[in-house]
Specification:
The protein starts with a helix and ends with a helix. The protein is α/β, with parallel strands linked by helices and about 220 residues long. The chain has one domain: Protein tyrosine phosphatase superfamily (Protein-Tyrosine Phosphatase, Chain A, Alpha-Beta Complex). The protein is about 50% helix and about 10% strand.
C-alpha cells in the first residue's frame, strides 16, 4: 500500500512538472503584466464588472460611499487581518458580509481553497442586482487573484486579457507569483489560456529579488496609510 501511494505521488509530481513546463509562457506573460510599473495611483474601490468592485481594507470603511456605490455584499478574503470594526453596522445598511481566511504567501493555495466560495458570493450579489466589494488588506494579491479569476470565468476571457483589465483598473496588482501561477492553472482547467504568448509578451522587467513581493506590498501600504 505504501509503495503504491509513493508511486502515485511520484506520478502526480511528474505530471505537474510537465504541466508547468507547458504553461511557462503564460506564467511569464502574466508576470510581465502584473510587474509592469503602474502609471498612477487609482482610487479605490475600482469597478471590474458592473456587479464587482475591487479594493483594499480601507474601501470597506466608508459605509456612505458603499451605499452610494450600491454595494450589497462585502467579501473580505484576508481573514481577521482584513476584519472591520463596522461589522455590526453592515446589516443596518443592507450589506451582507463574508470573511474568508486567505493567506498572502507564495505557496498558499488561494484559488483552490477560496475561488468557488468567493464566486458563489459574488453571484449572489449579481442575482439580486447588487454589487460585491472584494477586498483584502492592501488590495493587491488575495483579492486580486480572486477578482481576476471571477472576471476571467464570468466573461470567458483569456487569462492574459483578464489580468490586463484588472491591472488597468487597479494599478498595483497581483505581485504574488504563486497566485499568478494558480490563476494560469485555473485558466488551463477552464480552457481560457488563449493563444500562446509571443516572445515580446513574456519579456519580464528586472526580476524582483526574493522577498521583494512583501517589500513592495509594505512600501505600498506605507504610501496609503
Amino acid at each position: 500500500m505504501a509503495f503504491a501511494c509513493g508511486i502515485t505521488i511520484l506520478l502526480l509530481k511528474l505530471r505537474n512538472r510537465r504541466r508547468d513546463k507547458d504553461l511557462e509562457p503564460w506564467y511569464l506573460a502574466v508576470r510581465a503584466v502584473a510587474d509592469a510599473p503602474s502609471v498612477s495611483r487609482r482610487d479605490l474601490p475600482c469597478e471590474i464588472l458592473p456587479h464587482l468592485l475591487y479594493g483594499d481594507k480601507g474601501s470597506a470603511l466608508d459605509t456612505f460611499l458603499l451605499q452610494a456605490l450600491g454595494v450589497t455584499h462585502i467579501l473580505n478574503v484576508a481573514g481577521p487581518a482584513g476584519n472591520q470594526t463596522l461589522l455590526a453596522d453592515y446589516p443596518h445598511f443592507g450589506i451582507k458580509y463574508l470573511q474568508l481566511d486567505g493567506q498572502d504567501e507564495e505557496d498558499y493555495n488561494m484559488v483552490s481553497l477560496h475561488h468557488n466560495e468567493a464566486s458563489e458570493f459574488i453571484r449572489e450579489a449579481r442575482e439580486v442586482e447588487g454589487k460585491c466589494l472584494v477586498h483584502c488588506v492592501a488590495g493587491i494579491n488575495r483579492s486580486g487573484v480572486l477578482v481576476a479569476a471571477e472576471l476571467m470565468i464570468y466573461k470567458r476571457l483569456p487569462v492574459i486579457e483578464a489580468v490586463k483589465r484588472c491591472k488597468a483598473a487597479r494599478g498595483t496588482f497581483l505581485l504574488n507569483e504563486g497566485f499568478q501561477r494558480q490563476l494560469v492553472q485555473l485558466a488551463h482547467q477552464e480552457g481560457l489560456l488563449g493563444p500562446k504568448p509571443s516572445k515580446s509578451q513574456t519579456d519580464l522587467p528586472p526580476r524582483r529579488r526574493r522577498g521583494a513581493n512583501k517589500a513592495a506590498k509594505n512600501a505600498f501600504m506605507s504610501r496609503i496609510s
